[in-house]
Amino acid sequence: WKILPDLRERMPDRPFIVRSILDDRFPEKLPGDGVKLPVWVDYRWDFSKGETPRSSHFKRDQNQFRKSGLITIDDEDFDESRVAEALRLYGLLYRERHSLRNPDYTPEFIAMSRARGWLRLCGLVDPHSGRLLAFADRQATHGVSTDLLIGYDTTMDQKARLYRHLTAMLAESALHRGLSLNLLSGAGEFKRLRGYLPVMERLVAFPALRGPRRWSDRMILAVTEKCSRQFTIESMIEAGG
After folding, report:
1. How many Å apart are CA 16 and CA 13, to the nearest integer?
2. Alpha-carbon Rg of the chain, whole angstroms?
3. Residue 188 burial class via C-beta count within 10 angstroms: exposed 0-12, middle 13-18, buried 19 and up
4. pLDDT tens string 199-223
5. pLDDT, tens digit, for every residue of 19-67?
6. Closest to 207 measured CA to CA, from 4, 6, 12, 3
């Protein structure tokens, strides 16, 4: 938000979008021409008070994770070979299972992101083979830990419970560090059963400050904002969010 006014002045003929903002994370006052639009429903729990969700599914997952025998590794344990393993797991989940349009991250990008403090990796390792089975990012900003990057071995049987163990590890970490945990969107029913609370994620769109497209931008955004008013957390959950 601090650099947005300067960027708009530098490129006054371009619209701008600020993404991935939760309803309780907006600044007190937005620029007057900004339009808030719903994107999807994220799932969150505030572990900073030392309390966990009162959910039998949550408690069961935590117990199974502790008994799994999997080895937990932190960011300093990710050398080049571990990063390569992590990127393979990310590709299995996000590119092969979901869509090839998802980003194809490179080791160089991961190295830069870790060096700049944008990513803090953690993972689960098979105690017998030493192979990385699952990983996630648990970098925290303003008291919120967000798994911006995750992956696990989708070729393994579901009985391995890798996604459950991964979310259990993230919950345990957030509780230990006194953070709120944002598990983002997707797998909504899974997260609701474990007591995570839905919160709307939005983006804010700004029209060009000057130039021939300013008025058309404003008109399009006004119509889009009016149409988006029908979307609530409840309606998005009902639609599968």
Report:
1. 10
2. 20
3. buried
4. 999 999 999 999 988 899 999 999 9
5. 888 877 777 677 778 899 999 999 999 999 999 999 999 999 999 999 9
6. 12
Angle at 139 between CA 134 and CA 140, to 5 degrees: 135
Residue with tokens 């590890």: 169
Tokens of 131: 């192979």
Q: Would you state the structure tokens that stand for residue 154, as one six-digit string?
A: 């989708």
Reported as a single tens digit per residue, the pLDDT across 185-199 is 999 999 999 999 999
End-to-end CA distance of the chain: 28
Q: Is 3 exposed, middle or buried (0-12, 13-18, 19+ CB in 10 A)?
A: exposed
Stated as kind and residue range, the H or E segment containing 160 is none
DSSP tag of 92: I
Burial profile 80-106: b = 16 or more Cβ within 10 angstroms, e = fewer: eebbebbbebbbbbbbeeeeeeeeebe
Strand-pair category, 150-152 with 16-22: unpaired
Q: Are strands 35-46 and 197-206 parallel, antiparallel or unpaired?
A: antiparallel
Q: What is the pLDDT of residues 94-140, one digit of tens each?
A: 999 999 999 999 999 999 999 999 999 999 999 999 999 999 999 99
Q: Are 93 and 100 in contact (CB under 8 A)?
A: no
The DSSP output letter for 156 is S
- CA 192 vs. chain centroid, Å, equals 16
Percent of the chain with pLDDT over 90: 86
DSSP 3-state assignment of 37?
strand
